[in-house]
Amino acid sequence: MIGTLTGVTKDLGLRFNVVSLLPAGALALFVFGLLASGAPDHAPDIHRLSKRVASLDAWQASAAFLALIAFALVIQPLQLSLVRLLEGYWGGSQLGRLVAAPGLWLAGRRRRALERMTMLPAGTEPSPRQAEAMVAATRRLERSFPPKDELMPTQLGNVLRAAEDRAGGRYGLLTVVTWPRLYPLLPEKTAAIVDDQRDQLDLAARFCAVCLLGAAVSLGLLATHGVWLVVPAVAVVLAWICYRAAIAAALQYAVGLETAYDLHRVELLRALHLRLPTDYESERTTNEALSTFLLQGPSFARPEYEYGGGT
Question: What single-letter DSSP state applies at residue 276?
Answer without folding.
Answer: P
